[in-house]
Amino acid sequence: MKAFTPKKWATENTERKEIFSELSVFSVAIILVFLLGACGASGDEVVETSPTVTPQTITDFRVVVASDDISYQYPRIPLILQDGNDWITGADKVEVAAFDLSQDEPELVWQGAATRYNDYALPYWVVYPEVDHPGEWGLVVDTTLGATTARLQIVVELVAETNSPAVGTMPPASENRTLATEPELAKLTSAAAPDPDLYQQTIAAAMASGKPSVITFATPGFCQTRYCTPVVDSVSAAKEQFGDAANFIHVEVYKEFSPLVLADEMAEWGLVTEPWTFVLDGDGRIAARLGGPVSPQELADELEKVEQAN
Question: Is residue 152 situated within a structural domain?
Answer without folding.
Answer: yes
